[in-house]
Structure formats: structure tokens, C-alpha cells
Amino acid sequence: MDPFSSINLARSTIQLIDWSSKLLSGAYEIYHSPDGLTEDDAELSERTAILRKLAFGLANRSSGHVADGKCEPLPSQPVAAPDVGGNSLEQEEKIAEDPVTDKKKTAREDELNHVMIQLLNHENDDKPMGSGNKLEVDQAYRKLQKLTSEMKTSAKAFAGEDVPRSEQEQNLQRVAKGCDDIAKRLETTLRQLRVDPKNAKFRKISSFRQAFVKLCSQRKIDGMERTLDKYRTDLILQLSVIMSDQQSSVVRELRTLRDASSRLGSAYEEHLDNISKSFRLIQTQATEDAEHRRQNPAAYRTYNDDDETEGKKLSLFSLHKSYGASDKGGSSQSQNNIAADDEIPQAFQYLAETLRSLVTTATDVAVAQRVLSGLHYKTMTMRIESVVEAYTDTYKWIFKPRWAKNAKGIKVHFAEWLAEKDGIFWVSGKPGSGKSTLMKFLCDHHRTAEALANWARPLNPAMSTHFFWSSGTTMQKSQEGLLRSLLYDVFKKSPKIMKMVCPQRWEASRREEGDLEPWTLSELRRTLTALATCHGLGYKFCFFIDGLDEYEGDHSEIIAMLRSLAASPHIKLCVSSRPWNVFEDEYGKVIDRKLYLQDLTSRDIRHYVQRKLEEHPNWQVLPSEEPLYKTLLEEVTTKAQGVFLWVYLVIRSLYEGLTNGDSLPALERRTRDLPADLESFFKHMLDSVEPFYHTQMVRTFQVAMGSTSPLPLMIYSFLDEDFENQNFALQIPVKQMPMVEVVRRQDQLRRRLNGRCKGLLEVCRNSNEGPYMGHRVDFLHRTVRDFLRTKEMSDFLAEKAGDHGGPNTLVFKSFVPLIKSIPWEEVDVSEGGLLSRMLGDAMHYAYKAELESGEAQVELLDDLHRTLKFYATTTGKPIPWYQNCYTPFYDDTDYAPCQTFLEFAIQNGLCLYVRDQLRREYQPFEAQQPLLHCAIAHLPGYTIREPDLTPMIRVLLEERDSCHVELLKQDAWVSHIMAFVRILDQEKSPKITQMIEHRQDMIQLLLAVGADANAQWKDFVHVWHLLLVAITHSPLPSCPAIIQITKSFLNAGASLSSPFWSASDAFTEILLEHCSNSETMSDTAYLDFLVQIYCLLISKGMELKPSERLLIHQRLPGRLSESISAAIDQQKLEKKVKSQAAAEGSQSWTWTSWLGALW
User: Fold this and answer.
1) DSSP characters for 747-799?
2) CB 280, CB 288: distance < 8 Å
3) Which residues, listed in sequence order, are joined to residue 466 by a DSSP beta bridge?
4) Which residues belong to any copy of the Nephrocystin 3-like N-terminal domain (predicted)?
């Protein structure tokens, strides 16, 4: 991966020009070895002799004698360099045997270690082995070859990139080609010198220049020098233009890196600023160089001219026989003071190193941003952005020292923990008490950063955040989302951290082009574990995690993971949740590591109420009303019981009274009449909605409740259009909506939502998306959704609902015009871009609409297909069904995962629609791959949840006989099982569990209709055997579907052995391997799972050897070994019964046959 291939080509060309010029200029004398050996060979021979001598002496000391007076030869295999920091185990044992320390022996060992390290680390590099400015011919030849190779590699990479190049960038190739021609001529000459170094013809030649003149001619050498000087001048000027030309690939790439850095919020601005400064420096120096050449042409004569020039001043890029940049009026250095072999002249060396640094820095930044992009997801910061800011002068008590008590006499130990302590601090509180607001306050406050700096000293502090959101997307309420958020925030700090904790991901991002494999949950966990255990990072980390109770998975599982993180000496966590038992048991036992928010906010609530009332323009209190005012403040504070959400709603009610001109006594009565608990308050608010709006209110609430995550505000705009005209979605043309119209509609919907829903739905902004999709509708608080799901409110909503269709049907109908109206400013037809995400969401709701209504959405889906073809035609790009939809992935066939709308519909489970399409006499589009393969062989990137495709498989088998034939060919079936094997390698999560449950039904169906349980993968191994091994290593032992899948294969005749594999041998080895692992042995659920599979195999005929039974009995816990013994006994009994039944049947048949014959 080379973001600045032009710069890299220029750098490698500069190095070649420099080296060629030095050879031609006579800068180096030829080193002549008296014995014909190069100094490399001589030194290596000397080191080897010393090593043998020392080894001989050491052996003599250790053994007390030397056989036949000979030293054993050195081993032919490479010898690992000894650890000079301490003795080896064998050395320590010998020292222990002989208490008398032999100082001479120790000295010999030290000397041996030193020589061995020198010998083993010796490289035939380009360092001069002679003295001063002398250089061996072989070294000069090798270095010239090396630099030429580097330049050719850079030129190949430059030419191989499919990017537009400016004219100056294209000229770099011309310069590189010219330099290559000169290098070839120099190589030819050096090769002649290498052939016979003792040749008398060359013995009197003292410098490389003399050799070149002798073998070529003075005229040719002068010509090559002039050509190199011209190339050098051209290259510098071209570099200057490239770095300022806004159309050059270099400047475009730098701009892309800056945009990505800004978009991802990464902390690489300083790196990019340094690159820009280097650009400007090179441009400035190039300009000065050109001007100096214009004013002092004599200063740039060829190198074989020994005349000195007064007033000569060498710029940053000058290359002369005089390498010191002298002041004006000074003289140049003599040739005898020229730097040694590997030292590039300071000026040109600085340019080469500057360009090398530019490329390295740009590459690191580009790689780091690829890694960050893989971790980032669109809704990563949406939750924390939607949490309300802490009101002015509230929550300041959180930073007070532990000895400061609040009005209730409660001490808060948070400040002490933040600045000094490790482990976990728990923020708990009632629903609506302001936990998320406090967590956001802590994350943003400068005193948090100051306290963490004190805690981390002398290292640097780094903070990561994640806010779980039960109303959000799957990523916002899953463990995967948590891990990606934490790692993303950490990795933004420094590329060094990435390299150290996930080196494989870093290297893959550096080497591979295109999209990388997505992060798996297993990889995320491993990376976070590496972060917790890795030393030398230079950072200590504090994680703020809000809303553990909103995590959708097993809470005990997330608690265990956080506990393991907190065990690290350089990681601590601040977490928040409701006071559920599972969290109380884990975090509530240590008094100085927790707080209950509702007990600490009475002063904040009073302050908030007072300030908010005083902010209203109609607020005034007469002196005689002061006591009543204090009574009002006290009543609100007391009635709130620490629930800030209730106070917020009360203030809204009081504002309505103030707007209507209510007096202070009226406001006090209004407060007194308001319900004290949230649910009653919500009901009170909904009862105030005008009956005229009830139907639309119910539709709005049902859509919000039924959505998997907050929907775009524009969906609700088109939902209103559908309320007035149910054919609106089909009638609206494909026409990009002007942004002015988008803003008008959004402002209009905000007012409508306030009128219909009384503020219980609000609009939040996702800064990672544009205005069209970035404004989303969500509940005021999680407690509102909980309230609407109560039986009372469910009955109320059902009673008021109209006959316009279910919520999923309404949402899908609104997605069609939403896709038709995308503004040109936000049209993104890249795979995984905006259109891909919208399509994924739309098809999810189309799938749910089919299940909800029992009807195919044929007209809407056909209209959507026409819309997508319009976008493909107008943009000239294929329809972006989802990420990597056109790239064969994890499949032995050449079929792309998805190319047509029919394939897309199949993969999204639209059974009724697909059946309609297959039954049409004229099919407007067809799949580009076998239908069954399309349904079962791929793992599309679903934006929400994977549909159950088992009904789709039934439809395909019923409607197409070719699907049965396809199944017998086994390609799709084998691809399906291999995809399932990869799923089993994932860590447990609700998403993965659901995918496995879907595969259970699909596998049972496919086996029932003819899939071969013993199908082979790559014609040599049964795919069932691979599946069984994957099952035994799966981190998902508690998933019952896996057991059922194993039973299905066995019932379908899956073999327990093959010429290359035996279930008994393989599974026993796996079981015993886990029995020898202390960590696995402590996981009783996993062992139970393995034994359950083991017994299942035994019941289907797997036989154990006596030795295997003995090992299992010895190593497994008694309860589990007894289960296996019982399974074996049961198998024997069944075999005996079957054998007896077969014998009786045989006798009965013989007797009957005899009677028949007799008759």
C-alpha cells in the first residue's frame, strides 16, 4: 500500500542519481585486497576462525579433554544467538555442579557470545569495509544493483496504479527510465572490473572514475554526468510542481487522508501537517535552487572540473564534488575530505530522507485509517450525541473530595477513584435519574482529563466511551458495538498502538487492496485482551460505558468480560446501569466504588427548576409571593425523587402555564395535580392530545415502536403523505429532492410530532450521516417505550389504529419514496454506501411486511427495482446491493453473491414476491446464478437482522425442478455447510445464535429433500467431518441448535469414518486435549456440550478402543465419564437387541418357508 507512489518513485530515483554521480565523479577510490579476497570475505573468514578457536577452548574447558586433539565442526544449521543477558539452563546446571567459578572460562564465554552475535548478525550490506573513501568493486556493484532494483520496483508500483496522473508525475517515469539506462552502462563497467580483480590493467587504477574512463571514454563519462545533472534538475522541479498541483495524485491523496482523518475523528492531524510542511519546504528550496542556478551558472559545472568557483553556494538539492554547503565567499572542501561510501551528501541525503519520511508517514496514516474504517460504524456516536447536556452548574459535586458530604450526609468517592484508583466504578440510579447525562458530562469535562493524567502518570491517559442504546441499531446494543467503539477510540491516539495489539490486521491493511475482511467478535475480543496485557504502549486507559442494562445479550457475560479488563494494571472502567440485581451483586458491594444518582441530585434539581423558571420571559415573583415560590421549588424537588426526566416534563408543563399567563398560585396547583410517577405522567400527556390527531398519533407511535432502530425523520414525512394518499409511494416520480425541500419537510415534521405526541418522540441528529438521513426520530426516554408496551397502552393504541396497514408495511411503503427522492448531494452508489444501507433497511421491512400482512408487496418492489435501474443508468455504476456483492467470497464457484433484484429478493427472504416472480409468464429479470445457490451459499451483509430463508428454500424447491437437480450436484450444499463452519467460529452473540437457529431449520430441510450428508469438499474430505470438528471447537456450546444439527446429519447417514479420518480418533483426541486444559476443565458447560456430542456419536455407532475408554475414565470428571460409559452400555444393549431380533426373524423366515414348501 503506497499512498504516495509518485514521491516514492522520486525518492528511489534520487538515490540512484546520487550513487551514480558519486561513482562517476571520482569520489571513491577502488579498494584492492592483497590476497584477492574482498574485505567482506576476509572479515567473515577471520570471525569464523575466532569462533572455532573459542568453541574449541570452551569445549576443552567443559569436558576436560579433546578427542584426538580435534575440534568438532560447527553445526550446519543456523545457531540461535545466545541470550547475553543471562545463562542458559544448561549453563546454570553446570555452574551449580561446580561451585568454583572459572574466571577465564567466563571471559571465554563472554567473548564467544560476542563473536557469535557479530557473526550471526553480520550482513553483506553496503557499509564500506575499507577506510576513508575507499570502496570495493563488488560493493559498488551490489549497491548499484540494489538501488536500481528499488527504483524499478517503485516505477512498477507507480505504473500499476489506476489513478489519474499529472504531466509532471508522468515525467517522473521518463527520468527513471533514463537513470535506468545509465545504471545499466555503469553495471556493465563494474562487471568487467569484477571479472578479474588481479588484472594488471586495473591494478594501477585508483578511482572508479579512472576505471570508467579507461573502459569507456572521457567524452562518454562527461556526457553521463551532464545527463544525470539534467535529470536531477528536472526531478527537483517536477517534485516542486507535483507538490503544489491540486490535480496531482500526491495532493489528492493528501487531501483524501485529511478528509478521512476529519471524518473518522482520528488524531493524525499533526502527522499530516508535517507532510504539508515538508511539501512547502521542498517547494521553497527548489525555488531557491533554481534561482541560484540562474544567478550562478558556474557553480553547477560537471564534477571532473577541478576549478573552484568563488561565491558558490550549494542548495538543499545540489550535488557536487564539494559536499559541504559553504558560506558565500568560502571555498569548497577538497576531494580528500569527501564523506565515506554510504554517506549521501548532506543536501541530497536530506531530500531523500525527507521523501522517505513522507512516504512512511503517509503509509502509516493511510493504514491506520483503514483499520479505523473497519472498526467504525455510522451510529457509533449517535447515542452520546442525543443525550442531553448537563444543565449549567449541575453535577459539580461529582468532583468534590471524598470528605465533602451532600445534604443527606452521603460521601462520594468518585474523584478519588478517578485520580488515584484502579478497578470499576459503578454509577447507578432510577430510570430517568440522569445517568447518561452524568456519563456524558464526565466524558466531556476537563477535570476528568486532568484526574486521569494524574492517574496515568508517567504514562499518557487515553479515554474510550460507549453508550449502549436499547432503541438503537444492533451495533448500539451489542458486545460487538461495545468492542469496536472502545478499540476505535484507543486506536485514534496512535498507529503504534494498532501495530502492537493487532499486528496481523495492521499488516493486512498495509498489504491488501480493496475491502478487508470485517472484524469478527473473536478478533475484537482478542485485540482488546492484547490491549489489556500488552506492555510498552505508553498509555493507560479509562473506559466509560453507559447503559449496561440496555445491552441486548447475557448481562452476566458482559460483566465477566469487563471484570477481566479491569484486572489489567493499565485499564479501569466507569460503568452505569439501572440497579438491577445482576449489577448490584457485581458492583454494589463496595461502598467507595458506587453511587446512586437519585440520592445526590436534589440540589441540582432545585437549581435547575429555579433557573428554568427565571429564564421564561413571563416569569415574575412579587415580594409577597416569595414564600409560595419557595414552596413550589420544594414541592417539585421533593416530588421528583431524584428523577430528572420527571422534572423536565414538569418544567414543560409550567412553561405552558407561563405562556398562558398563569399566576404563581396557579402554577403551584398545576404542579400539585401532576402525577408523581412517570407512567401516569405519560398517560396524562397523551390524554391531552386532541382527538383529531389520535389516528396519526397511533400510527406514529406504532411505527416508532415497531422499528428496529430510530428511523429517518423523512420516513415520517412520507408516512404522512401515505395517510392522505395510499398510492403516493407509487405515484411519486424518481426525482432528486432539493435540499431546501428536505429542510422544509423536516421542520414541518418536528412541529407535527410535538403536536401529536406531546414531546414523547423527539428528533436526534447523527453527525456521521448527511441531512437527508441523519435526522432520526426516537423516544424521549427509554421509559416512554416501556410505557407504551404495557397492556393498557397496547390496548389503547390498537383501539385507535386505523386500517392503513401494519407498521412494517407502512415503513416499507415510506422507504420507496425515500429512495426515489435522495438529493444529488447525498447520492452514493458505492457498495456499502448510503444506497446500500437504505436498500438493506428497506428489504428488512419488506420481509417483515410480508410476514405481517401475508401479502406480497409486488407493486412496491417492482417500483423499487425500476428506481434502482434508474440510478445504475444515470451514474454508470452497478446497483450496490450490499458490500462485496459482486465479489466471489469464501466460495469455490465463480458466482458473485448478488447481481440482480431477484437474487436480492431471494437473499432477503421475500417468499411471496419470489413465488410471484417465478410464476409469471414473462419474467422481467432472472438470476445470474442457480437459485438454490443464491439462497444458501452466501452470507450477505444484512444491515439489521438475517431473515430465516428456510421458507424461501421450500418455495424454490416447489417452483423449480432445477433446484432439486442443483441440490444433487452438491455445490450449493457444500458451500452452505462451509459458510456455516465459518459462523461457528464466531463468538456468542444474539445475532450469531439466531443465524445458527436459522441454519438448523435449513439443514434439516435440505437433508430431508436429498442433500448428501457425506458430500465432499474439494473431493477428498467429507464436509460433515469439517463441520463436526468446527462444532467441537465452537465457542457456542450452549446453543441447542448445534446439537440438533449434529443429530440431523447422523440421522441422515453421516459416516463416522473415512480413509483419512475417524470420528473416534479425532473426537477422543479433542476431548482429551480439552481435559488437559485447566481453563477448559473449569468450563463445565463446554465439557457437558462435548460429552453430549460424544454420547450422540456413540449412539450412532462410534466405537471406542479400550485405551480410549481408559483415558476418558482417568481424565474426565466422574459424572461425565459415567455418561459416556452409560452411552456405550446403551449402544451394546441396542446392538444385542437388534442382533436377537435379526436372528429371530431369520428363524421365523426359515420355518415359514419350510411349511410353505411342505404345503
Assistant:
1) HHHHHHHHHHHTTSEEEEE-TTS-HHHHEEEEESSHHHHHHHTSHHHHHHHHH
2) no
3) 545
4) 413-578
CA atoms within 13 A on the CB side of 302: 17
CA distance 1130 to 1133: 5
DSSP count for the chain of H helices, then E strands = 51, 14
Is 1157 contained in some domain? no
Tell me which of 806, 821, 838 is where a domain ends. Answer: 806
Helical ranges in 534-677 per DSSP H:
555-566, 581-587, 602-615, 626-640, 644-659, 664-673
**Is it true that the peptide bond before 675 is cis, omega within 30 degrees of 0?**
no
Rounded Cα–Cα distance for residues 301 and 345 (Å): 17
Closest to 777 in 3D by CA, of 756, 763, 758, 791 = 763
Q: Which of residues 607 and 35 earns the better pLDDT score?
A: 607
Looking at residues 4-8, what average pLDDT do you find? 77
Asked which of 349-363, 751-765, 850-864 is least confident by mean pLDDT, the reply is: 349-363
Beta strand 775-779 with 1021-1022 is: unpaired
Which has the closest alpha carbon to 717: 811, 826, 839?
A: 811
Say yes or no: 17 and 163 in one domain.
Answer: yes
Check: CB of residue 816 under 8 Å from CB of residue 842.
yes
Euclidean distance between CA atoms 141 and 146, whole angstroms: 9
CA dist 1114 and 877 (Å) reads: 65
Structure-model confidence comparison of residues 357 and 1056, the more confident one: 1056
Same domain, 1129 and 1070: yes
Task: Check if the beta carbon of residue 708 is closer than 8 Å to that of residue 944.
Answer: yes
Give the three cell numbers for residue 357: 519520511
Q: Are residue 381 and residue 414 in the same domain, yes or no? A: yes
Q: What are phi and psi of 445, to 5 degrees?
A: -80, 140
Q: How many CB atoms lie within 10 A of CB 878?
A: 14
CA distance 828 to 265: 21
The answer to whether 817 touches 732, Cβ cutoff 8 Å, is: yes
> Which of 621, 644, 674 delimits the end of a domain?
674
Among residues 816, 979, 823, the alpha carbon closest in space to that of 897 is found at 979
Both 17 and 164 in one domain: the answer is: yes
Please tell me the total count of domains within the chain. 6
> Are 197 and 36 in contact, with CB atoms under 8 Å apart?
yes
Q: Contact, 357 vs 278, CB < 8 A? A: yes
- Domain co-membership, 137 together with 255: yes
DSSP string covering 516-541: PPPPPHHHHHHHHHHHHH----SEEE
Quote the DSSP letter at residue 554.
Answer: -
153 with 17, same domain: the answer is: yes
Q: How far is CA 575 from the centre of its chain?
A: 24
Looking at residue 240, what DSSP letter applies? H
Q: Is 623 part of a structural domain of the chain?
A: yes
Q: Among 333-342, 370-379, 881-890, whose mean pLDDT is lowest?
A: 333-342
pTM for this prediction? 0.74
Q: Are residues 106 and 233 in the same domain?
A: no
Q: Please provide residue 568's backbone torsions phi and psi, each rounded to the nearest 5 degrees.
A: -70, 140
- Indicate whether 1088 pLDDT > 60: yes
8 A C-beta contact, residue 536 and residue 514:
no
Stretch 281-303: mean pLDDT:
60
Indicate the average pLDDT of the chain: 79
Q: Is residue 927 part of a domain?
A: no
Residue labelled with grid coordinates 446500500: 836
**Which stretch of DSSP H or E encloses residue 115?**
helix 103-121
Residues 782-837: tens digit of each pLDDT:
999 999 999 989 888 888 776 777 999 999 999 999 999 999 888 888 888 899 99
Full residue range of the structural domain in which residue 495 is found: 377-600
Residue 331: CB atoms within 10 Å: 12
pLDDT band for position 294 (50/70/90)? low
Number of residues written out for the chain: 1159
Nearest residue to 1041 (alpha-carbon basis) of 1095, 998, 1087, 1094 = 998
pLDDT in tens, 19-39: 787 777 766 666 555 544 444
What's the pLDDT score for residue 86?
40
One domain for residues 623 and 718: no
